[in-house]
């Protein structure tokens, strides 16, 4: 086993060691001369990673959670919540004041008529102002100097502002109805990049572990093959037992199999696996050992083969 086993560490790693000794001084000098730059790169990389995590993963996730919980501070909006209400109330006061100051029949409006005017304004009807505007626009200069043309124009400007805010409020309603979708769209890029980076890191470290497991599985297959070949080519004694030579070969192969495959079999099956390995070494008939080998292959083949 010492002759054909794994070579010593010195034999396996002398070439990388010599290369490291030859190039180590140069690498240390380069790092020493650019120490400030290297430290700055490391700090910038760490800060960039932290900023990306908080700005593109944590904050969008918080907003998404706030949307699901219907948090008012996280709602999307094109305009402020009270902007439309205040402008509409201002338009109502302007129209009512205009109507009171310029009654159509020359008599003051009653409370019921004023309430009706307020209702019409809420519905978008400015007929009281528009009739005065139509009258004054026939003589613009006179209407601007002596009439109510300027006031009527300002009221229409306020009406246009209210109409624009009504349209913007409709856009706000559409945004709010799709707010959860926008939240998922906002958090998706950060999550995707984080997932890709995590998978890359896990695969980079996992590939090494996977290669080691594949190597051990390859050794396990070779060892099982050698054990099967030893049992198949063995010449049993008159009692059906293995000869000392064959039993010695079997002992070596089983010992190596136990060492190389102990980490491949799950911990919950270690006890049973060691019992089956021990059964191969018991002094029994060759047929019994062949049956034990078959049991090992079908019971633990998922991890060994």
Automatic annotation (TrEMBL):
Bilayer topology term: Multi-pass membrane protein
Keyword annotations: Membrane, Mitochondrion, Transmembrane, Transmembrane helix
Presence of the UniProt keyword Transmembrane helix in the record: yes
Compartments where found: Mitochondrion membrane
Chain segments annotated as transmembrane: 13-32, 180-201
Pfam families named among the record's database cross-references: NCA2
Superkingdom classification of source: Eukaryota
GO cellular component: mitochondrial outer membrane
InterPro entries, alphabetized: NCA2-like
Protein name: Uncharacterized protein
Organism the protein comes from: Corymbia citriodora subsp. variegata
């Amino acid at each position: 086993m010492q002759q054909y086993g794994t070579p010593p560490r010195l034999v396996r790693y002398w070439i990388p060691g010599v290369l490291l000794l030859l190039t180590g001084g140069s690498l240390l000098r380069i790092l020493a001369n650019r120490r400030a730059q290297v430290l700055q790169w490391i700090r910038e990389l760490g800060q960039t990673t932290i900023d990306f995590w908080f700005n593109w993963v944590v904050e969008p996730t918080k907003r998404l959670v706030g949307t699901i919980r219907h948090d008012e501070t996280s709602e999307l909006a094109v305009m402020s919540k009270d902007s439309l209400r205040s402008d509409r109330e201002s338009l109502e006061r302007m129209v009512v004041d205009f109507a009171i100051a310029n009654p159509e029949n020359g008599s003051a409006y009653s409370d019921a008529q004023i309430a009706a005017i307020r209702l019409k304004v809420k519905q978008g009807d400015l007929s009281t102002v528009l009739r005065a505007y139509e009258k004054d626009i026939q003589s613009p200069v006179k209407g601007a100097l002596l009439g109510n043309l300027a006031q009527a124009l300002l009221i229409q400007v306020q009406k246009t502002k209210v109409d624009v805010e009504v349209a913007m409020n409709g856009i706000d309603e559409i945004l709010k109805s799709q707010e959860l979708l926008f939240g998922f769209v906002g958090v998706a890029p950060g999550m995707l990049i984080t997932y890709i980076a995590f998978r890359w890191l896990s695969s980079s470290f996992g590939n090494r572990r996977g290669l080691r497991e594949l190597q051990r599985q390859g050794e396990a297959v070779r060892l099982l093959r050698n054990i099967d070949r030893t049992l198949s080519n063995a010449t049993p004694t008159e009692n059906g037992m293995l000869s000392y030579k064959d039993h010695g070969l079997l002992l070596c192969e089983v010992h190596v199999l136990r060492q190389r495959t102990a980490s491949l079999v799950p911990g919950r099956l270690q006890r049973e696996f060691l019992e089956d390995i021990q059964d191969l070494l018991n002094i029994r008939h060759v047929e019994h050992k062949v049956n034990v080998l078959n049991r090992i292959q079908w019971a633990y083949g998922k991890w060994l083969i």
